[in-house]
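Repro:
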Amino acid sequence: MDPKEKFREILREGALRFSAEEIPLSIERPANPEHGDYASNIALQLSKRLRRNPRQIAEEIAKASAPALAATGLFEPLTVAGAGFLNIRVKPEAKLEVIRQALEQGKDYGRAKTEKEESIQIEFVSANPTGPLHVGHGRGAAYGDSLAKLLEFAGARVTREFYVNDAGRQMDILTLSVWLRYLQMRNMDVPFPEEGYRGDYVRDIAARLDDENLERKVDFSGVLSDADAEIDRLIDLAKRTLGDGWKRVHQFALEAMLADQREDLAAFGVSFDRWFLEQALHDQGLIDKALKLLQARGHLFEQGGALWFRSERGFERVIDVWGADHHGYVPRVKGALEAFGLDPGKLEIALVQFAVLYRNGEKVAMGKRSGEFVTLRELREEVGNDAARFFYVLRKSDQHLDFDLDLAKSESSDNPVYYVQYAHARVCSVFAQIEGWDFPKNQSLEPLKSDRELLLAQRLAEFPELILTAARERAPHSLAFYLRELAAEFHSYYNAERILVDDETLRAARLALSAAVRQTLANGLSLLGVSAPEKM
């Protein structure tokens, strides 16, 4: 029985004595622990409607609720504080029951039980297949995958999608860049445009391209001064020169980049249920069909020789994770859904700000076509997957993230991922000193009486609700914060108390508490894609 939900249920019954209308019932943890474990301002809400003294209302609710609260055996007497706040404490023995729950449920501790699974699609990363994934893509990958795991743990049915932008000008530029490097490797004197992709990966793709029919002598004269116009001229020239060969180079470059991105993401612990190719929309005629439908409904207009839009595949909700630089497209896409007669409220856009790397206190510069960018693979190799995954979700996704590479590699309490993992390893080190420990269902937890032990139990009890809140608010960072707090409280407890004491009953209870902390840390780290090491 969840004490918080039971308290909410009983207070709701008490509030119905004053109002038949449903009132949002907020149950919070007081900022000051001396005020109890839970507090509600329901009396203050009712006072506005009834025009009565809120404290008097609170006292009446407390009196009416007392028998039901006492019958649960969970609570100390309900008290009225201040202007009319209702405060309550959970009895120590009831507070400790969460230890039993965590150990019995194991890997499922914190998992929500729902009668109906909401079907959600999350589309994230979706990087252009024109280069290796960089550290900005890494943040979107860590956020999207952690959010997907959270939603599944909270009871949703989630489908992960990577939308491949394989149609359009950027892929044409990559195709041209690969072909020009291919010609240069065959000792042909060809110019390389300013706007071409210059990274070493382009040469690597060109080196693997083996097709003699692509070796053509071409007249590249007539260079245009405008860089954009020049590369468009070269693309048109290459298409006319190569004919079907252009498609072969395009496909070869695309497959090479997708294979690289898939491998990189898999090594980062991120996988997708579906890789959807944009070109498929064109091949199936869906783009033309959509345009005709929009035009028939009067949502398109022609200007400058182009069609302009005036500003779901069976899922109940779609969450698109975009870079923050795409924020201007949000109203356009929602407007398009509305124009199609779909509910724009079923589409959520989560914006992810760029991650800025710092090394030795200095910002690490990056840029894409020049090839001077820091790749996700390089970041993983330098700091490790665990540090990268945890650091990426330390802040809200729409806030700028300063990624300190030196801190991420340090083995100190200042490094948040090390600090959390070390708490898990510390528990494991305790259990490594004993043999064959198992938690009996009738194990007494009564010896756990210290403030630190009760605080740890209270923190453990917050985990299931934290999961629901983090999922609802699309906020993996709140889970990272929770794990840091839980780790801090365990470290404090470990440093202050001996766990393997001579008293067998107390030792067994402290081992149970430590094991519950270990299980909760492992469950939380798993949702963030971070390992829970047994040794460090």
